[in-house]
Amino acid sequence: MAVRLGAAVLSEAATVHDNLLNILGGGITQIAASSYPAPFGSTLALMFYVDPIDVGKAYALEVTCHHEGSDINLWGWAGDMVSEEPMMDQLQTVSLPLNFALMGLPEPGSYELVVKANGDKIGAVPFKAVQIDEPRV
Q: Which of 30, 38, 47, 74 has the most CB atoms around it within 10 Å of its CB?
C-alpha cells in the first residue's frame, strides 16, 4: 500500500490551508451527552502520506463509525483522493478534515472510526460516548 495514514485526530474543528492541517482542540477521546441518541459534535482530522513513486494514483478512501466491535456501519464518508505532482522527488502529504458534527451516536459506549484506503484498513480512532447528568437549575 502506497498511501499511509500519518495522523487521525478527533477535534473540535479542523481546516486545511495550503495543504497544512490546522487542528483546533485535537485529541478528543470522549463525547458526553445528557441523553441519547446524541450528535457526534466533532471533526476527524486526517493526514495521509503518499510515496513519490505513487503520486498521481487514485485512492478510494472510506471512514466509517462502528459501535463496540460491531461490523455495522452507523455512518461514514467515502471519496477518492489523487495526490498532485511533487515539486521534488519527495514524500507528499494530503490533508483532509471531515466534519461529522451532525452525525448521531445511538447510545453510550465504545466506538471506533475506521479509516480505509482501497478497501484496506489503515487506521482507527477509538472514542467513548458517555451519559452525563443535566445540571440542576
A: 47
> Measured on CA atoms in the order 4, 44, 106, 129, is the torsion positive or negative?
positive
Cα of first residue to Cα of last residue in the chain, in angstroms, is 55
pLDDT tens digits, residue range 124-133?
Answer: 999 999 999 8
pTM of the shown model: 0.89
DSSP letter string, 66-95? EETT-----EEEEEEEEPPPPSSS--EEEE
How does pLDDT run across 61-119, given as a tens digit for each residue? 999 999 987 888 999 999 998 877 655 677 788 899 999 999 999 999 999 999 999 99
Under 8 Å CB-to-CB from 18, ≥6 apart: which residues? none
Residue 45's SS3 state is: strand
Query: Is the CA virtual torsion 113, 81, 53, 95 positive or negative?
Result: negative
